[in-house]
Amino acid sequence: MAQSTSESAIPTLADVARRANVSTATVSRCLNNPNQVVDETRARVLQAVSDLGYAPNFGARALAAKQTNTVGAVIPTMENAVFARGIQAFQEELGRHGKTLLIASSAYQEDLEDTQVRALVARGADALLLIGYDRSPELYAFLAKRSVPTLVTWSFAEEQDKPAIGFDNRAAMAELARLVIGQGHRNIACISAPTASNDRARGRVEGIRLAMGEAGLDADELLLIETPYGIETGETAMRQVMAAAPATTAILCGNDVLALGALRAALEIGLGVPGDVSITGFDDIEIAMLAEPALTTVHVPHREMGRRAASMLIQMLRGKDPPKSVKLPTDIRLRQSLGPAR
Amino acid sequence: MAQSTSESAIPTLADVARRANVSTATVSRCLNNPNQVVDETRARVLQAVSDLGYAPNFGARALAAKQTNTVGAVIPTMENAVFARGIQAFQEELGRHGKTLLIASSAYQEDLEDTQVRALVARGADALLLIGYDRSPELYAFLAKRSVPTLVTWSFAEEQDKPAIGFDNRAAMAELARLVIGQGHRNIACISAPTASNDRARGRVEGIRLAMGEAGLDADELLLIETPYGIETGETAMRQVMAAAPATTAILCGNDVLALGALRAALEIGLGVPGDVSITGFDDIEIAMLAEPALTTVHVPHREMGRRAASMLIQMLRGKDPPKSVKLPTDIRLRQSLGPAR
DNA sequence: GACATCAATGTAAGCGCTTACATTTTGTCT
DNA sequence: AGACAAAATGTAAGCGCTTACATTGATGTC
User: Fold this and answer.
1) What does the pLDDT read at residue A8?
2) Least CB–CB distance from A57: residue in B122, B263, B286
3) Which of A4, A179, A188, A313 is the most exposed place for a label (fewest CB within 10 A)?
4) Residue range A5-30: average pLDDT?
5) Where are the alpha helices (DSSP H) in chain A?
6) Pairwise CB contact (< 8 Å): A59 & B63
7) CB-CB neighbors (< 8 A) of A100 in chain B
């Protein structure tokens, strides 16, 4: 005594077929191409499905159909509201097309990202969303070999040939830096996320240097502090900046969270913002506007990016010609944390 | 001409076996129980694996082994920093035990949660993490039938028998409300997330009513506005509150984000906080401390909750006796947004 | 009425892996 | 050196599903 319709074990396609008095093929068709099956039969099958509480076995399905309707994404962290938002939009759009999203996080570690990408592929991700360009050639080669459509996002660089949808971190930050310099600031510091294997952070720093150069400042004089993502770390970095270079009047931060930390540290130290020092961020997360003083920052269309990334990936999945990369516009949100140099 | 070692197709176990001159069983063992294989053979196999760029097919593996080392989680949204943080910790701990996390989000919709849970199970999730208790009996029945270990989190209620790790939303909010009332507030309003199918939100509202009752206030007089998660929605709700009941002196919000919105609206309307009205939150997200004035709120140990949830789930997976539910302590963070009634 | 056509359904061959069981190799003991 | 146990490896049967191909039966045509 083993298999039987009434067993309490997990029901399979065959159980459903038996109960509905049809073949497994018909059940399968009911589930995947309902209109290939005549109404009456379909009703009977669906009834059996619900009677039994049947749910298809994903692994078996993937194995047989050689596709999973699953898209994978590896993001540096979920704690960053920015990724969270973009990914949420990405997921919503995917859902609209019947695709499921698998998320993994790399904790900002390149080797972990490598592992996660492979895990996602092994899991059958039909396509992948990756943040930024920076990763080992081996990984790219692996992806190419498995021919997994891959879309780079949160970054955009003319010189890269991989499909991407993002924005020009360098140009956006340069624009902001020009504004800062235009306010008379000459002693500038930057608090950035670690730039190793993070082209976005690197691009932003480069943007500052670019604007400094244009203004006749010595870009090498930029005081740069790299520190992991976090309000606390931003605070600490800010203290270091002011200890190392008390004459600093403007601190451009690589992202809003770091900027928020810097802001807090400034107030704690007794520095007025923007009276004594100006502080800027990047990303324009919701609270940037709520900070006291409100944070001048670079606004990025995260939700749009997420949504369009999904569309592009779906298009790639359909085997269309590789889509041309998209550069999304960013714009500066001028708020109180930036003022003229003292 | 089709299959062959040098084909550019995706390599399978059989390809590896052929190249290493062993059987597929040996390759499988090398990958799963390395010490069952003699060193020399293993080296040869591993070499073949890397030569070929082989990665196991997850679906096939799940199908054959009947387990996936995957844990699923359905969260209401990723945009809420609170879930993001807890889940991040959850994932880290799972990773330490060789498990992978699959995340799905329900957008705060009960039916979507149902769908997602089933999808996760179909995908082979060996266990599930769910937020709060509220969901249909059918879903619970389904989970029981498939015998998927399930852990409820972010909530804790004595009267529930499902394994859970969380905190007592009602008691925590009641404690805060007592403090507010202790400051002389009598005209109290609450801005809450929608309470339908959200026992956490409901518990928090109940907590306020409880404290009001204790203090001899009429709990029915509590002005309650329900609105989705968001700073903007919090702002709107705050305006409604003050329009409907200008005498209100304290607004208890169901979460920090709503409170931040309320705070902003208050300042816009020209109300001093806490001079004219006091505002409190719940969750103690990072920015609660940074708001101006800093937000009085209930601190919740999210990371610890996530970490311990992972441990519990792993224990459940090992088939240990069902773990007893855990109630984590919360504590009030008194900050400037709460002051005596005017 | 015989036959072609087409829609609905059935049959059965895998998909890539794990694992129980069978077989071979190695090592140990007398 | 032979016998035997243990270790290493091989063989092959599925796991639950999709799908190419085969079969059946209805409908329409001349």
Assistant:
1) 63
2) B122
3) A4
4) 85
5) 13-20, 24-32, 39-52, 58-65, 81-96, 110-122, 137-145, 169-182, 199-214, 231-244, 256-269, 302-317
6) yes
7) 104, 119, 123
